[in-house]
Amino acid sequence: MIPVSADIIPLFVAVPLAGAFLNSLIGKKVKWLPDVIGNLTTLAVLVLSVISVRLVTEYGTLVYSVGGWKPPVGIGMVLDGLTAFMLVTVNLVAFFVAVFSVNYMEKYTSKQKFYTLFLLMLAGMNGVIATGDMFNLFVFLEIASVASYALVAFGTEKHELEAAFKYAVMSTVGSLFVLLGIVLLYSYTSTLNMADMARVFAQKGTGDITLMVSVLFIMGFGLKAALVPFHAWLPDAHPSAPAPISAMLSGVLIKSLGIYVLCRIFYSVIGITPAVASIFLFLGALSMVIGVFLAIGQWDLKRLLAYHSISQIGYVVLGIGLGTPLGILGGLFHLFNHSMFKSLLFLNSGAVEYSTGTRDLQKMGGLAKRMPVTGATNFVASMSIAGIPPFNGFWSKLIIIIAAVQAGRYGYAFWAVLASLLTLASFMKVMKYGFFDRLKERWGRIEEVPFFMKLSMVALALICIFGGVLLLGGINQVFLDRATAVLLRGTQYAAIVFKGS
Question: What are the extents of the domains in the chain?
């Protein structure tokens, strides 16, 4: 008998799908209806995400058997500490992005189509996070990816269509790597259930096939996560998308489709090996340094932020690759923090473009005088990403650096500190040329952005200010610690899932 509490799991996919269906069906009837459906749907899923944290605290790992067929025969959906952590992260950003879109998307032709695609992308991300089945993971991954291709091209300008095409081609290559890896895993284990795969690996050993599968998954999901050297699509795709979608892509999509799946597969299913951990460390450090060096020379605000996404993802992978309790905690903590401050930075860039019509830092100057809320929230996000105390980015970067030192990885700790200093330099440039310089005459009459855009930016800024302290306090035990424990338990995932089902 399935516990009543496990019935919540399929709702993370069903609710956004229902919202997308309603929007496509009746969104044209009334002008304000897409906004209402989009915001209520994301709010509902956010509430469910918060409830899921409490359920994991109370019941432990929950398993929902689709159609009543128990795993490994049927399809299972799993809710554990890592799942709940990722669901809260994704749906918190999605809600604030939906609120921001109420005003911002007025300048585009069809809010109905926007919210339909947006909710499909959200359903795909939630599905990837919650599924316990390898093939269903691929299906949800493709749902989220295809919706994101369309959203990158939403403005239908030449450069947007070009960026979307490049993104689609490279992402499809990544998907092929992933599919081939799944095929090889299935040929070796004769199952698609992730817990059952872990059990087979425990019985038969990993075998020679694991090396090939590991390479395919690191390339495939590394491309989805935009790790160097698989990052070439991101600097075009993220700036070309509308600001709310840039916030989603950079804030949560590359993490849920890339980083989360790498963590789940290599820790919970196959089992992390020293070789794979070393690859994670190397790719993390490479992304950190190359991303920030590429960002420093940029004058297009959104392109600068896109390169910083590559750099900050490097910190997350570095923490995960360390494999120590403190390293994993720091990596997951930075994943959450980056979702907050990078989403805020992209919303800030959208607010600036909304009011001025430009993303070129050289054409801005003194905008904080005319746009005080945007200027203040951008300052908070800039200090957060640069790792300045007491903002949230400082705490997670500090934990990762301390974990690297404790593990004897002094070189990686050095690169993490250097990348943080260069990030600070980059965002000092943003603040100087964009917000703190002399107000140019052409911007003398611009106004602050509308209410809902300000509301989202202020809410995310408050999370950046207080989130680090709160998460390291009491919330840590039910949120971060439980997610970290899932990865530390490794392939015990199999026994826990079968016990929960």
Answer: 4-500
Q: How far is CA 305 from the centre of its chain?
A: 15
pLDDT, mean of residues 123-129: 93
Q: Which residue has the tokens 């690169």?
A: 415
Q: 354 near 328, Cβ under 8 Å? A: no
C-alpha span between 198 and 193 (Å, rounded): 9
Is 226 in contact with 309 (CB distance < 8 Å)? Answer: yes
Measure the CA–CA gap between 40 and 27, rounded to whole angstroms. Answer: 14
Contacts of 156 (CB under 8 A, 6+ apart): none
Question: Within 13 Å of residue 265, how many CA atoms lie on the same side as its CB?
Answer: 29
Tens digits of per-residue pLDDT, 40-91? 999 999 999 999 988 888 888 888 888 777 777 778 888 888 999 999 999 9
Contact between 130 and 13 (Cβ < 8 Å): yes
Q: Could you tell me which residues come within 8 angstroms of residue 183 by beta carbon, excluding any fewer than 6 positions away?
A: none
Place of tokens 């425990």: 202
C-beta of residue 494 within 8 angstroms of C-beta of residue 196: yes
Q: 370-424: per-residue pLDDT in tens? A: 888 988 999 999 999 988 888 888 888 999 999 999 988 899 999 999 999 999 9
Element (H, E) at 265: none
For CA atoms 271, 334, 131, 136, the dihedral sign is: negative
DSSP state of 78: E
Give the model's pLDDT for residue 157: 75
User: Sign of dihedral through CA atoms 345, 346, 352, 355?
Assistant: negative
The contacts of residue 492 (CB under 8 Å, 6+ apart) are none
Beta bridge mates, 62: 79
What does the block give as tokens for 332?
């997951």
Given a contact cutoff of 8 angstroms between Cβ atoms, the answer to whether 120 and 100 are in contact is: no
pTM of the complete model? 0.92
Quick: pLDDT tens for 210-248: 888 889 999 999 998 888 888 888 888 878 888 888 898
Nearest to 395 by CA among 460, 474, 330, 351: 330
Count other Cβ atoms within 10 Å, centred on residue 26: 13
The CA distance from 250 to 338, in Å, is 9
Flag whether pLDDT at 3 surpasses 50: no
Instruction: Write the pLDDT tens digit of every residue in 252-289.
Output: 888 888 899 999 999 988 888 888 899 999 999 999 99
| Cα 64 to Cα 80: distance, rounded to the nearest angstrom | 12
Find the largest Cα–Cα distance for the chain: 72
Determine how many CB atoms are found less than 10 A away from the CB of residue 49.
25
Quick one: how far is CA 459 from the chain centroid?
18
